[in-house]
């Protein structure tokens, strides 16, 4: 286990260096002047030139990258050209919203994926139908349709925002503030559902195929022949042997969800890092872009590491 | 699989029907009720971008926050269609004949939000901070030599040289705002209170900044000690919507009270024809502009540039794309900047000029027409004009560019498109220098392609010393002859509000594309 974690940590450092390096190279060669975002559109070329010097934007690429890395090690990811705040402060403000959205969406995806894979009644057909329609629609269309139906027409759910800041759901759950928790849930349901639909179908399809394969296996036939109930057969002999591919897909989808929040956060005005990234890109706010890249890269690596560990726990044949 | 397919098809139909029936005018026939909790909700399209610090903030989306928490010495007069300086924290003022000494008699009984009384010391502190912070609009105080504060009720500002635009600098929505010297000293830190002012304010305006959730919501609370008129709104919420459709839905439902200059012109008809809401078209100094790139291959000569500008049928394009909020611009500066309209723009629709010019071009000539991504009006204009070029055998492409890229062209104009359509842009204030310098001078901020004539710059620099309108007109005429620029249309601010909101036009002025919330009310 220690060897596995050491290898993964080493790989993570290399991946993060490559990612941040790529952002700096892009910054060097992409057209765009971030200083206008910093000073404002009408700022004169003289003011812009002075600020470029002040922000070290005219320094050589390697010098800037080295400065960035040495500062990053100390927990300083620079100042956002757009918000004028430290990127770490911005990430601290926006990341909890994204984490809560993705966690809820991931739970939805697991639940819906499991329903997709396992229920063989009319209700299951209905769930699969809803999910397939949702998964084939572009996320922005699904989001807008959801807002029109559940906010504008039915008035059941809010259209935008999240009703507070920080780890709203987690904090209100721990402190027993049920009013805030309820309001937070109301806000998160729609964006989380939109974010969860496509991953739920991916997880559900893999799990369903795996289950069907296992259900036809010899050991399952033997278990049935021994007189075990269908629930016992499924629980003890089918699910555990089938869950590996589903888990693997779920881990992959969790990483994709973090990367895919941009569109969903934009439409639902969800104050997360997806929104932050979407507003930073047109302004060429590279410290912010690099900061989000580091976070997303780290999340992806950690997620996959955790999934590998869970898979090993679920199936002892897998060695770490 | 069959039942699954049937279910999927049925669900698609249901969702499609739900989506299609979303926003018909019939649904809005009923006006939404007024709030009973004293809260006004003004929807923002996108986050404000920069901190709401008056010496930093140099964009449009968050001006409402700055202008309702801070006040300047003067402002532009509300609810008039002309550029006229009006009192705010200065009740009267005198300007020396050489435009070097500005004497302001200050309003009595004004308190900052921290309780500090407003005196001439605050004027000195405020102008100094503007210079020290070095934000985008620091140029406005760069010429200040001294501020005499001997009399607490009078501030005498002496400039290094005459500047006829100085009052406009002060009246500009981006101009220096008065800040509490005590609050500044207390929260100065190592960055002149820049960090503190990301989440607080130290102004004297009718509202205090009470909560900041960057990217989500900004909240203002009525300042109990405000010297002026107070509205029935004790709280103003400014939630951020990142999608215009979501913002519209919230407005239609009554969750948003007003939207200021945020919706695309394509929605104009919908709201103008709705009996359930009010739609206002209010005067501004803003215009749609066309800028041509002399560094590209297509528009190297003035002949080519002028031929293209004359091919634009503005009488048709403006109603088609911009609707009632715009009209054909007939002057080179903003509407009404030069009294009497002496700055006449002599570009008229003559498509035959470009046709004749195009006939001389080699086959397969190409042209790129740019617009800023996220500006649907400019995109539509660029697309239509590009299609029209095809009839002249010119292969034109409309292409969107991110804002940061647009502002980088001046460093290397050859990287820019041949033409750029700017859906809405304007000067910082109402003085002709603020228009000419920004758009025509290479050292201004929005001369995208660096199309410059030193003689024009010299005229502008000379004219601003005295306010000589004839010289401003001469500079404009000279610049127009180069064909780099067209004042395409005069634009208005489009404000939509719930039916119960009153005082909208009265709370708006030509310089600030925002509302003074203190002047708004509820229809009884």
Automatic annotation (TrEMBL), chain A:
It is found in: Cell membrane. Residues 95-311 form the ABC transmembrane type-1 domain. It is a multi-pass membrane protein. InterPro entries: BPD_transp_1_N, MetI-like, MetI-like_sf. CDD domains: TM_PBP2. PANTHER family: ABC TRANSPORTER PERMEASE PROTEIN, DIPEPTIDE TRANSPORT SYSTEM PERMEASE PROTEIN DPPB-RELATED. It holds the Pfam family BPD_transp_1. It comes from Paractinoplanes durhamensis. Keywords: Cell membrane, Membrane, Transmembrane, Transmembrane helix, Transport. It comes from the Bacteria. This is Peptide ABC transporter permease. PROSITE patterns: ABC_TM1. Belongs to the binding-protein-dependent transport system permease family. The chain crosses the membrane at residues 12-30, 93-117, 129-152, 178-201, 246-268, 288-307.
From TrEMBL, chain B:
Belongs to the bacterial solute-binding protein 5 family. It is found in: Cell membrane. Its main location: membrane. It holds the Pfam family SBP_bac_5. It comes from the Bacteria. SUPFAM superfamilies: Periplasmic binding protein-like II. The keyword GTP-binding does not apply. It is a lipid-anchor. The keyword Signal applies. InterPro entries: Peptide/Ni-bd, SBP_5, SBP_5_CS, SBP_5_dom. It comes from Paractinoplanes durhamensis. This is Solute-binding protein family 5 domain-containing protein. Gene3D superfamilies: Dipeptide-binding Protein, Domain 3, Periplasmic binding protein-like II. Residues 84-433 form the Solute-binding protein family domain. Keywords: Signal, Transport. Residues 1-26 form the signal peptide.
């Amino acid at each position: 286990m220690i060897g596995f974690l050491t290898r993964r940590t080493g790989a993570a450092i290399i991946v993060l260096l490559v990612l941040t390096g790529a952002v700096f190279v892009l910054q060097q060669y992409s057209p765009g002047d971030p200083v206008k975002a910093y000073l404002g559109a009408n700022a004169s070329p003289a003011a812009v030139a002075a600020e470029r010097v002040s922000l070290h934007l005219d320094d050589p690429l390697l010098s800037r990258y080295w400065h960035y890395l040495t500062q990053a090690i100390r927990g300083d990811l620079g100042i956002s050209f757009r918000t004028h705040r430290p990127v770490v402060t911005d990430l601290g403000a926006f990341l909890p919203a994204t984490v809560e959205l993705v966690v809820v969406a991931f739970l939805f995806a697991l639940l819906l994926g499991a329903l997709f894979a396992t229920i063989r009644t009319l209700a299951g057909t209905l769930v699969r139908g809803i999910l397939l329609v949702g998964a084939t629609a572009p996320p922005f269309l699904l989001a807008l349709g959801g807002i029109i139906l559940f906010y504008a027409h039915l008035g059941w759910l809010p259209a935008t925002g999240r009703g507070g800041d920080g780890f709203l759901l987690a904090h209100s759950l721990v402190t027993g503030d049920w009013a805030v928790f309820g309001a937070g849930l109301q806000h998160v349901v729609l964006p989380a559902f939109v974010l969860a639909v496509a991953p739920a179908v991916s997880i559900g399809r893999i799990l369903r195929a795996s289950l069907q394969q296992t259900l036809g296996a010899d050991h399952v036939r033997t278990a049935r022949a021994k007189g075990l109930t269908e629930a016992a057969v499924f629980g003890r002999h089918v699910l555990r042997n089938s869950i590996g591919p589903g888990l693997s897909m779920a881990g992959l989808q969790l990483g994709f969800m973090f990367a895919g929040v941009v569109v969903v956060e934009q439409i639902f005005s969800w104050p997360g890092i997806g929104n932050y990234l979407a507003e930073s890109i047109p302004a060429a706010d590279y410290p912010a872009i690099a900061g989000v890249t580091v976070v997303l890269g780290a999340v992806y690596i950690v997620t996959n590491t955790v999934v590998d560990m869970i898979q090993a726990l679920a199936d002892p044949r897998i060695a770490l | 699989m069959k039942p699954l397919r049937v279910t999927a098809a049925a669900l698609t139909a249901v969702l499609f029907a739900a989506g299609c029936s979303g926003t018909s005018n019939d649904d809005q026939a009923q006006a939404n009720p007024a709030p009973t909790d004293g809260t006004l909700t003004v929807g923002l399209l996108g986050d404000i971008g920069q901190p709401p610090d008056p010496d930093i903030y140099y964009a449009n989306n968050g001006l409402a926050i700055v202008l309702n928490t801070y006040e300047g010495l003067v402002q532009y007069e509300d609810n008039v269609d002309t550029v006229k300086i009006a009192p705010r924290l200065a009740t009267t003022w005198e300007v020396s004949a050489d435009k070097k000494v500005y004497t302001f008699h200050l309003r009595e009984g004004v308190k900052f939000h921290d309780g500090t009384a407003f005196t001439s010391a605050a004027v000195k502190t405020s102008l100094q901070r503007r210079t020290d912070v070095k934000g985008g609009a620091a140029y406005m105080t760069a010429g200040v030599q001294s501020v005499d504060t001997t009399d607490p009720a009078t501030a005498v500002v002496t400039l290094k040289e005459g500047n006829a635009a100085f009052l406009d600098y002060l009246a500009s929505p981006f101009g220096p705002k008065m800040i509490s010297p005590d609050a500044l000293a207390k929260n100065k830190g190592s960055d002149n209170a820049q960090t503190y002012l990301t989440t607080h304010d130290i102004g004297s305006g009718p509202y205090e900044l009470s909560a900041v959730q960057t990217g989500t919501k900004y909240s203002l609370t009525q300042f109990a000690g405000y010297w002026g008129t107070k509205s029935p709104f004790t709280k103003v919420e400014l939630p951020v919507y990142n999608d215009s459709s979501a913002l519209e839905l919230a407005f239609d439902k009554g969750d948003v009270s007003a939207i200021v200059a945020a919706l695309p012109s394509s929605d104009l008809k919908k709201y103008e024809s709705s009996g359930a809401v009010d739609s206002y078209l209010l005067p501004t100094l803003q215009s749609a502009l066309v800028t041509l790139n002399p560094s590209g291959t297509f528009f190297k000569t003035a002949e080519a540039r002028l031929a293209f500008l004359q091919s634009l049928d503005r009488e048709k394009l403006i109603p088609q794309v911009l609707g009632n909020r715009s009209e054909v611009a007939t002057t080179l500066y903003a509407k009404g900047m030069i009294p009497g309209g002496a700055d006449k723009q002599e570009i008229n629709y003559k498509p035959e000029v470009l046709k004749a010019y195009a006939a001389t071009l080699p086959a397969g000539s190409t042209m790129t027409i740019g617009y800023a991504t996220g500006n649907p009006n400019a995109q539509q204009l660029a697309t239509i004009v590009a299609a029209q070029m095809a009839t002249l055998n010119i292969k034109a492409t409309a292409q969107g560019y991110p804002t940061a890229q647009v502002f980088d062209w001046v460093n290397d104009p050859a990287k820019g498109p041949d033409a750029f359509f700017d859906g809405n842009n304007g000067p910082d204030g109402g003085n002709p220098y603020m228009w000419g310098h920004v758009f025509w001078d290479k050292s201004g901020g929005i001369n995208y392609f660096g199309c410059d004539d030193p003689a024009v710059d010299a005229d502008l620099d000379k004219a601003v010393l005295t306010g000589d309108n004839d010289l401003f007109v001469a500079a404009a005429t000279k610049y127009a002859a180069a064909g780099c620029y067209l004042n395409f249309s005069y634009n208005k601010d489009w404000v939509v509000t719930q039916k119960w909101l009153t005082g909208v036009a009265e709370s708006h002025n030509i310089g600030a594309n925002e509302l003074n919330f203190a002047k708004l009310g509820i229809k009884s």
